[in-house]
Amino acid sequence: MLVGRSKAPTYEQPQGLPEIYARHADFVWRNLRRLGVHESSIDDAVQDVFLVVHRRLGDFEARAQVTTWLFGIVLRVAQTYRRSATRRRARLTDAPASDFEHVPTTTTEGPAELFERREASQLLHRLLDELDDDKRAMLVCIELEQMTVPEAAESLGLNLNTAYGRLRAARAAFNDAVTRAQRQMAAGREAS
Amino acid sequence: MSAPERDELTSAARAILDAGRDLDGPGDLERARVRRLLLAKIAAGGTALAASSAAASGPVPIGAATTTTAAATGTATTSSVLAAPVVKALVALTLVGGGVGGGFAWKARRDARPAAPAVVATNEPARVPAPPTLAPAPLPVVAPRAPTPVHHVHVAAPVRDEVPANRLAEETALLATANAELRGGDARHALALLDDYERRYPSGVLREEVLATRVIARCQVSVGAGPAPDATARRAAAAFLARHAASPLAPRVRSSCER
After folding, report:
1. Which of A55, A67, B21, B62 gives 20 to 30 Å between its CA and that of B152?
2. How many whole angstroms separate alpha carbon B183 and alpha carbon A114?
3. Rounded CA gap, A35 and A187, in Å?
4. DSSP string across B3-68
5. How many CB atoms lie within 10 A of CB B51?
6. What is the maximum alpha-carbon separation in chain A?
């Protein structure tokens, strides 16, 4: 059952693709990355999201925020890309998972800041990689995009009770992943 | 059911998530590059996106949704606000066993990491995008690109990476302007713009799309002078369809010229 609202609020209807891209390109980009789309595929994935937006814009109803609607599209595109990447890795058996990820740079960023961003981004992605798809998406919605639980439920097509339960499970799984990472890093220090 | 509490997360997990909130967005160059590629895909499909491209690259209006406003401005401010939470998050992972004597464990990880270019090269094959597919409605379905080896095989035209980004943007803008003229009913002006395109970009990336637009414009001009496209326009359309039968623009050419 999809989440229903007794008194559905209405939101501003976006004017068109240029406006949506200007406002939401960053949202789409970062969430594709958080949902596991590799940096090498990010350009194509972002374009695919906006091509879907372009095609479906007429169907958009202002009962949802644009970001809620967009996240659902991002989620499906990310799943498609991840499946494809998994198949590709299976064929390229000698190719290890990348230990280096590109983090977009800003024009004002110094080397130290860039390094810190890369480290933090890698760390976050590694931890998110340890979650299953459902928990990962929920954690991204709530903890990174700071959606409300009803908004996340709508983005993910869940009823509210399921969404709350999944959020608890996602947080627990993320805690576990952090604990494992801490242990691994401690073991690494002892070994060195 | 009551809402879960934020403290369901440990302090270390919370620190990592807080630090990661502003990460992963594109930089200015990445954002602009993808916009150009998107424009290239849509422009020849008759979409008015390019006509408003200035809006797409402009600043986010004040009052936009909170998350997106933060996102759009995040890259410009990240360097000044991120350092503390990032360090906090990384330190959180090193605080194991009641001490910080080990310092930043991530430095050891950095030292152990293979050189970045080599890893990138072995993990993900070099990125060679196909020439732009400019599809009229319906637009391409969401699907990942073909596996890279196949991708390479099908790239016959110069790859986009060889085209300066500003030139691609110029090509795209010129073609979009021609399409806008065409939609506005000024097919002769569209043809003049296409002539200009071919003078300026004899080896342009968007040649197929320009040719399709030219054929449609010719048909539109001849329809304006008679009940149906003249023989010359129909021959041009037939030649395009014969040579580019699989083009996503073929249906548009067909509907414009086969009356």
Report:
1. A55
2. 46
3. 29
4. PPPGGGS-HHHHHHHHHHTT-S---HHHHHHHHHHHHHHHHTTT-TTGGGHHHHHSPPPTT--HHH
5. 16
6. 60
* Pair A131, A46: CB distance under 8 Å: no
- What does the block give as tokens for B24? 């992963």
Cβ contact B27–A106 (<8 Å) = yes
Alpha-carbon dihedral angle through residues A60, A64, A70, A72, given to the nearest 10 degrees:
-100
Chain A: give the shortest CA distance to residue B175, in Å: 17
Residue of A117, A127, A164 with shortest CB distance to B4: A164
- B185 in Cβ contact with B223 (< 8 Å): no
Contacts for A160 with CB less than 8 Å, ≥ 6 apart: A3, A149, A150, A153, B1
The closest alpha carbon to B29, from A102, A44, A104, A112, belongs to: A104
3-state secondary structure of B241: helix
Predicted TM-score (pTM) of this structure: 0.50
Contact indicator for A18, B49 with CB cutoff of 8 Å: yes
- Helix (H) / strand (E) element for A172: namely helix A160-191
Per-residue confidence of chain A (192 residues) as pLDDT tens digits? Answer: 444 444 556 656 666 788 888 889 999 999 999 999 988 889 899 999 999 888 888 777 666 788 888 999 999 999 999 888 777 666 654 444 443 344 454 445 555 666 666 777 888 999 999 999 999 999 999 999 999 999 999 999 999 999 999 999 999 999 999 999 888 878 877 777
| Residues of A (82-111) whose Cβ lies below 8 Å from B | 83-85, 87-88, 91, 94-100, 102-110
B185: tokens are 């009913």
User: What would the two tokens of residue B42 be?
Assistant: 């849509």
Q: Which of A22, A44, A189 sits opposite B145 (nearest CB)?
A: A44
Q: How far is CA A77 from the centre of its chain?
A: 11
Longest CA span, chain B: 88
